[in-house]
């Protein structure tokens, strides 16, 4: 019996006992190529610079509450992020993970409009089949029906427009560009329906991760979204908790779309698993309204700006930027895509291969022609996760929930240090896992 909630038995899962670059090692010495783990470990599991930074910071000072003191790593990390951040983002609020970042973004948007004398702005619009975290505010923004179902009566009322999910939802005969414009225009229709003076923010993932499996928007979609937000004075919150920090081939995923948000949420790759940390970046216009208004963001957690977490993240961001690792993620991602195409391009149960950089999705279907998903009761994704673990591969399979048409899919998010040989290993282990299940 395991006392760790929510595990039931110790034997259910291997015990993580070590890490070596792209590999996790269990207590029996078995090695697993880590291409999943929720897109966290972008530098692999034994990065010496990050380990040293954590060790040194613990020895120097582990914790000082930000209500009383700041710390060198927190200041340096904020400076470095701002140096590379898109658009006018120039303030950083540190938190401990993704849900805290999106939750803080929602509250910051609300307080901003109070400060500038628009208290009637209270609505957040987000998208169907999205995920923004599991705390109640973040879950309210998420549009995944299955994740929301149990908590529906407790959620904040937010509305959801269509995802930009070309493979499953673009009608035949419509161009990708027109499809993107059409689904982006749903935002305008929703703003008008709610009343523009009542809408405070639109929240979206530039590349949808957990709920759809590495689905980027089509060309032009986010440019149109940005225009609509500007037209109606609505803040654009981009959630790059999963797709940010270099994973798509750019340090920030929205760089690819050529848009900059008013508020940007990051986590996962920021700490690369060495420490739990997330951040919310915002413009000086938003921060300034609070600074010059009530003077205080009405929010906070005990561990914001934690010295050890920020020291780890500082070392991570230095590794990413000084080593040009986002570009490497782009290059290795193209190789991975080609290898996946060669292995699964004709597979009868592979409907779509997509993604950006080292953030790739494999959509599984019962029928390629009709794009019909597998019956969720078959538990295909769960079976593949198990088969892959047995092969020594960690990938991130997601069960289909039949929100819209999304079915089972496999998310692949290898570390940016992955090499050619390991890409071969990943694809052949995945092939064997598919053969065992499909
Ligand atoms: N937003 C996105 C896009 C995510 O993928 C996740 C986590 N999968 C979250 C928010 C929540 O992050 P956390 O689990 O760290 O709270």
Which properties best describe this structure?
438 residues, Aspartate Aminotransferase, domain 1, seven-stranded mixed β-sheet, four-stranded mixed β-sheet, 17 strands, globular, PyrdxlP-dep_Trfase_small, pyridoxal phosphate, pyridoxal phosphate binding, PyrdxlP-dep_Trfase_major
> Which CATH C-level class of the largest domain is it?
Alpha Beta
Kindly report the spatial arrangement of strands forming the biggest sheet. Answer: 4-12-11-10-7-5-6
Alpha carbon gyration radius:
21 Å
- Helix share, percent: 25-40%
Give the CA-CA distance, first to last residue. Answer: 32 Å
- Subunit arrangement of the protein: single chain
Number of helical regions: 14
Chain-averaged pLDDT: 95
How large a portion of the residues is in β-strands, by DSSP E? 15-25%
Named CATH topology of the largest domain? Aspartate Aminotransferase, domain 2
Quickly count the domains: 2
Low-confidence region ranges: none
Q: For this structure, what is the CATH homologous superfamily of the largest domain?
A: Type I PLP-dependent aspartate aminotransferase-like (Major domain)
Summarize the biggest pleated sheet.
Answer: 7 strands, mixed
The assigned CATH architecture of the largest domain is 3-Layer(aba) Sandwich
Number of strands: 17
InterPro entries: Aminotrans_3, Aminotrans_3_PPA_site, PyrdxlP-dep_Trfase, PyrdxlP-dep_Trfase_major, PyrdxlP-dep_Trfase_small
Protein name: Aspartate aminotransferase family protein
Pfam families: Aminotran_3
Keywords: Aminotransferase, Pyridoxal phosphate, Transferase
């Amino acid at each position: 019996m395991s006392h760790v909630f929510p595990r039931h038995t110790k034997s259910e899962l291997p015990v993580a006992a070590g890490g070596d670059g792209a590999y996790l090692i269990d207590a029996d010495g078995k090695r697993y190529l880590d291409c999943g783990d929720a897109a966290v470990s972008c530098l692999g599991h034994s990065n010496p610079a990050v380990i040293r930074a954590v060790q040194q910071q613990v020895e120097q000072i582990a914790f000082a509450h930000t209500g009383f003191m700041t710390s060198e790593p927190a200041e340096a990390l904020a400076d470095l992020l701002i140096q590379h951040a898109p658009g006018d983002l120039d303030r950083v609020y540190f938190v401990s993970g993704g849900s805290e970042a999106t939750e803080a973004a929602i509250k910051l948007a609300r307080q901003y409009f109070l400060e500038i004398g628009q208290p009637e702005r209270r609505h957040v619009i987000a998208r169907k089949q999205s995920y923004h975290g599991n705390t109640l505010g973040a879950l309210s923004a998420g549009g995944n029906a299955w994740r929301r179902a149990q908590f529906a009566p407790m959620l904040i009322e937010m509305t959801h427009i269509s995802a930009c999910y070309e493979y499953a939802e673009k009608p035949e005969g419509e161009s990708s560009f027109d499809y993107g414009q059409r689904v982006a225009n749903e935002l305008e229709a929703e703003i008008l329906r709610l009343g523009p003076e009542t809408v405070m923010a639109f929240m979206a993932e530039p590349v949808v991760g957990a709920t759809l499996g590495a689905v980027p928007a089509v060309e032009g979609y986010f440019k149109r979204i940005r225009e609509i937000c500007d037209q109606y004075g609505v803040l654009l919150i981009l959630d790059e908790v999963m797709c940010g920090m270099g994973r798509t081939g750019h340090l920030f995923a929205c760089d690819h779309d050529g848009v900059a948000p008013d508020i940007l949420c990051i986590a996962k790759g920021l700490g690369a698993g060495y420490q739990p940390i997330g951040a919310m970046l915002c413009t000086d216009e938003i921060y300034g309204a609070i600074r010059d208004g009530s003077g205080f963001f009405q929010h906070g957690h005990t561990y914001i700006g934690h010295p050890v977490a920020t020291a780890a993240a500082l070392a991570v961001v230095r590794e990413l930027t000084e080593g040009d690792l986002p570009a490497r993620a782009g290059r290795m991602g193209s190789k991975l895509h080609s290898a996946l195409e060669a292995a699964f391009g004709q597979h009868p149960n592979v409907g779509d291969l997509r993604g950006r950089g080292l953030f790739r999705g494999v959509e599984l279907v019962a029928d390629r022609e009709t794009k019909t998903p597998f019956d969720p009761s078959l538990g295909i994704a769960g079976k593949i996760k198990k088969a892959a673990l047995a092969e020594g591969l960690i990938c991130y399979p997601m069960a289909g929930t039949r929100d819209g048409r999304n079915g089972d899919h496999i998310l692949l998010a290898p570390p940016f240090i992955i090499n050619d040989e390991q890409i071969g290993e990943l694809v052949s282990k995945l092939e064997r896992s598919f053969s065992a299940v499909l």
